[in-house]
Amino acid sequence: MSEQHALAFYGKIQDLVSSQNHTLWVTVHPEQHSTALYHIDTTLWPFVFSKQAFLNPQEGATALLAFKINSLHSTVDNKSNKTQPQPAIIYVASTLGQIYTTDWQASHLTPVAGLTVDIKRDGQFEPILKLAQCGPFLVMLQATRLSYVNVEISHGATSPSLHQLKLTQPATTMAASDDGLWVAVGYSTGQITTFERQATGLVESAAALIHAGDVTALAFMPWQQRFFSAGSDQKLYLTHAQGALQPLDKGKNSNHGAVIEALYCHADFLYSGAADKTIKSWPIAGGQPVTCQADLGKMTGLSVGTVLEVPQLISINNKTSLRFLNLTDGKAREVSYVIKDAYTLAKNYLKENDPTTKQAGIDLLAQLNDDAAIGQLHKCLEKSQSKAFSLSILTALAHSSHSRAVITGRCA
């Protein structure tokens, strides 16, 4: 039985990063409400939750990256003898194209001066899909552009030198090698292109049509120049980045029953999460994967952290919750912790008999003030058998600026 906890975050989860006892994630609200950078410290249960709001109205974020600095490995605190998160600058790509920085504790959210990417292309919204590190380069992927900046040179500068490569077909995903030499970009056509970091910048190396349909996920093997790729053809391939791209069928007869949406390499395993609501743990050296399918949703992101110093695979489920899976011998076998969003938190409050707790649920939904929250208030009003409770809901609806709330309030 997994431990469950609801926290006051909202929006669709777009990305997450983890290191040891720190996990951060970002969301985009379907009605363009402002969201935040969310953080949990998983040293103890229940987890300690915090958030940092973005600076602008209607701003959320689409991508995160832990940019490694100073050391290539995690460090040990000599006083506590506990492993500390790997030194890193956390980069955050907002829906307005602004790049922010923070730390593993999410103690601040600072815009990088002069580093804003144009998110409009021919009148169309083109958000930053992925962030990656290629040596000293912070690499940013959009559907039609691959941008990069040398942050070692420009960090703290007022006008970072942003380089852009035009892409000839719609990009879908990206990954970079740990050695800082290679970037792989996947496209909606099934093609994958590799770029090599040279003295002049990123240079296209090779391209091949590897998948039939969208490339849905990419992940390099740890400290190798080979990468895994998944696509809408439900295939899983392994390809060397250098030279002609010649994929090997990694999945063979052990593939998921639906499209793989997330890949993540850690230590000796590749983890894959798919739309069939399963996670597979693949030994990188070869062999059959172990499948976990208990209490999972459609997965769109994976990372690895710790809870109570026990390694955990962390997954984004249905873009609304996080699930932590114990890594027994490196293999994900069962869900141990579940983190759900503010709408679940409000439901939990409203189930309580205590009037103060019920009011907290109403107040939270009123604060969210979106279609889902107003719909939840409306359902509560229909089921209410208490005049005081109904009056509290009607008061919240009357003060809401949402169009459904105004109509609902009048009808009530």
Question: Can you describe what's shown?
Answer:
By secondary structure, the chain is an alpha+beta fold. Helices cover 15% and strands 47% of the residues. It has helices at residues 151-154, 342-351, 355-368, 371-383, 387-398, 403-411; strands at 3-6, 12-19, 22-28, 36-41, 48-53, 61-68, 75-77, 82-84, 88-94, 98-102, 110-116, 120-121, 124-125, 130-134, 137-141, 145-150, 163-166, 171-176, 182-187, 191-198, 201-209, 215-220, 226-231, 236-240, 248-249, 260-266, 269-274, 279-283, 290-292, 299-307, 310-317, 321-328, 331-340. It is globular, with a radius of gyration of 22 Å. The model is unreliable at 71-81 and 407-412 (pLDDT under 50).
Q: What is the class of the largest domain in the CATH system?
A: Mainly Beta
The largest β sheet comes out as:
5 strands, mixed
CATH-derived topology of the largest domain: Methylamine Dehydrogenase, Chain H
Briefly note the structural class of the backbone: alpha+beta
What is the H level of CATH, i.e. the homologous superfamily of the largest domain? YVTN repeat-like/Quinoprotein amine dehydrogenase
Strand order of the largest sheet: 1-33-32-31-30
Average of pLDDT: 92
Under the CATH scheme, the architecture of the largest domain is: 7 Propeller
SS strand fraction: over 45%
Query: Which shape, going by the Cα principal axes?
Result: globular
Helix residue percentage = 10-25%
Low-confidence stretches: 71-81, 407-412
